[in-house]
Structure formats: C-alpha cells, structure tokens
Amino acid sequence: MKTRRALVTGGAGFLGSHLCDGLLGEGYRVVAADNLLTGSLGNIEHLRNDSRFEFVQKDVCYPGEWGTLDLDYVLHFASPASPVDYAEHGIETLRVGSYGTFEALETARRSGAKFMMASTSECYGDPAVHPQTETYWGNVNPIGPRSVYDEAKRFSEAVTMAYHRYHQVDTRIVRIFNTYGPRMQINDGRVIPNFMWQALRGENLTVYGDGSQTRSFCYVSDEVDGILRLAGSSGLESGHEPVNIGNPTEFTILDCARKVIATTGSRSQIKFEGLPQDDPKQRRPDISKAKRLLGWEPKVELESGLKLSLEYFRRAVAEKGKEKRA
Ligand code: NAD
Ligand code: UDP
What we know:
This protein is of the alpha/beta class. Helices cover 38% and strands 17% of the residues. It has 10 helices and 13 strands. The chain has helices spanning 14-25, 83-88, 90-96, 99-111, 147-167, 191-200, 220-232, 253-264, 288-294, 302-325; strands at residues 5-9, 29-34, 53-57, 73-76, 114-120, 171-176, 179-180, 205-208, 214-216, 218-219, 243-245, 250-252, 270-273. The strands form 4 sheets. The chain has a 7-stranded parallel sheet, sandwiched between helices. Strands 7-10 form a two-stranded parallel sheet. A two-stranded parallel sheet has the order 8-13. Helix 1 (14-25) packs across helix 7, helix 3 (90-96) packs parallel to helix 5 (147-167) and helix 4 packs parallel to helix 5. The protein is globular and about 55 Å long. Uridine-5'-diphosphate binds at residues 82-83, 178, 189-191, 194, 206-208, 213, 215, 253, 276, 279.
C-alpha cells in the first residue's frame, strides 16, 4: 500500500512538532513547513535523520512547491499562538490566518487532500456562555489587541467552511484550548512557561489581575491524540464543523500558580500585576461533541502534566540562562 503523506504548516512549533511525531507514528511521511517565526529547529532536531521526514523553511503565506507533492493531508498549524507573540507579530498573525489559510486550502484542493485547520478557544473571546459549546458564536472584540489573532482564526474557520461548501474539500476544524508541555518556548509569555521560568529561578510568579480568571489546561499528548482522532475521522455527523479539544478541568490562574510552585518545590511567592486588555475571564471547553464523535477525552490532569513537563522546563531554563550569560 502507498505511504500516506502529510504537510504540517507550523511543523517546527510546539504543537506542530508533536503532531509530526504523531503522524510519523501513524505511518505517514511528513513534510513540515515553517518560517521559524515563533518555532525552533530544536523542536524537530530528533527527526533530522528520519528519511520519512522533511523540513522546509518557508513562509506559508506564499505558494509552495507542494503541487509536485502527492499529499493526503494538509494540517494548517502555522500561526503565532501566545498573546505575547501575536501582539509582537500582529500583521504576520493576520497574514498567516488569511493568505496562509487560503494557500493551505488551495494546496489541499489541488492535491485532493484532506484538510485540518488549527482553530482556538479564542474564537469564543471573553465568553458569556460557560462552559463553551461549539454552537456558541462568541464574544470577541474585533478591534482590540487580541483581535489580530481572534479574528484571523475566525476568518480561517470561515474560509475552511467555504472550501468545504464550494469546493467539497474534506475539512476539519479543531478548536484547541490552552495546551502545554515540552517544546513550548520558555519565553513565549504563556502562563505555564512563564510560571515555570519564574519558579525555577526563584523569582516571584506574576499573576495578572487578581488571578480569579480561569483556564482549563490540556497536556500535549492528550491534545495530539484528540487532533489525530479528528483528523482520521470519516463520515461523522457535522464532522466538518468545529470540534473542541481540550481538558474541561478548570482552574483559576492563582491555583495554577500555586500548582507550579508545588511541582517545582520553589520558594517563590506570588505577585500581582495588571490584567491585559480583553483577557477572557473564564474558559472551559464542553467536550461532549468530541466524546460522542471521537470517543476522546483527556487523561492527564494538570498536576501530572506539570510533573511530566518539569524536566523539559528545567533544561530550557538552564539553556536560556547560558544564552543570556554568553
Ligand atoms: P507555536 O508558536 O509554537 O507554533 C506556531 C508555528 O507556526 C511556529 O513554529 C511558527 O514559526 C510557525 N509560523 C508562524 N507563521 C508562519 C508562517 N507565515 N509561515 C510558516 N510558519 C509560520 O504555537 P503552538 O502553540 O504550537 O500553536 C500551533 C497552532 O495551534 C497555532 O495555529 C495556534 O493558533 C493553535 N493553537 C494552539 C493552542 C495552544 O494552547 N498551544 C491553543 C489554541 C490554538
Ligand atoms: N497570565 C498570568 N501571568 C503570566 C502569564 C499569563 O497571570 O505570567 C494569565 C493571563 O492573563 C491569562 C492566563 O494567564 O489570564 C492565560 O494566559 P496565556 O497567555 O497562557 O493564554 P490565553 O489563555 O490568555 O490565551
């Protein structure tokens, strides 16, 4: 039987690189395309000598040579994802969520490949419905500082649905909720790497606002399992419409800070800083749809996931420390 081939945009990123591992594990040949804006070659270093894996350094907003490749799947994961990263790269975020999504969908259409788009819980904005079901349309500020990301993702969802409706591309949209684990950039500003960095260096943990805002954290192996199940699914009821994949156990950010301090055994204290504009007050996925359609639910709770990530974060902190001294 012919080996199936997948293109992963953003393949050198945190999630993209784990997805490459997962796809290789399922027997795919994998091409990862990434311009290294927020990703790193270190994330795919372990795949360098795997003949089934290829890395192409490239901005996916521009057409690729993919036309010559025989592709069975296009998974569009390229985009800055951390609020700090997309604030710094606002225009790039809008570009990759518009031109990049069109290019990725065109590639899928031309190759007759299936297509998956990495969407986000940010599509729900600061949600008025809790927990968030896929049928909720969200509460997004279209011109605020987070809009470069939120609206790019909402636009990407619209283009994806249009390619499904007008061009019959076999599409999937995964709405990913706060995922963490090894290979996150230690300085990307997201809450778990930030708290790990601070706790492992004995600095005070910066809780924004009063820390009562909530998030629900999914360990990366659970997230990738859900994504691959959705990617591989067929003949699903509403399978082309978005599916939430995340862990529904909800924590306040203050609780999250305390868990990181406990996991690292740090003496750090907590300090409070200003809450960024439009920071969602609550977030928790309703995963009934994923359970029903995919038989999926997460297995790793926050305490275990933090322990599983600790070694990685220790190394990342040590390496960054060396870079800073050099
Ligand atoms: P990440 O920053 O680690 O990975 C994104 C990757 O995309 C990086 O390697 C970056 O260099 C690459 N990229 C950005 N613009 C590009 C371009 N124009 N051309 C080629 N490559 C480009 O972030 P992540 O957490 O791995 O997120 C991956 C995807 O999952 C993103 O689309 C993000 O929106 C989505 N997502 C992630 C989370 C999460 O909690 N991790 C939550 C919701 C959605
Ligand atoms: N946060 C915090 N301290 C930090 C980093 C983040 O209190 O050092 C908060 C942030 O304000 C938000 C939550 O943690 O309420 C999650 O932030 P993150 O940037 O990880 O992702 P978001 O879910 O907001 O996209």
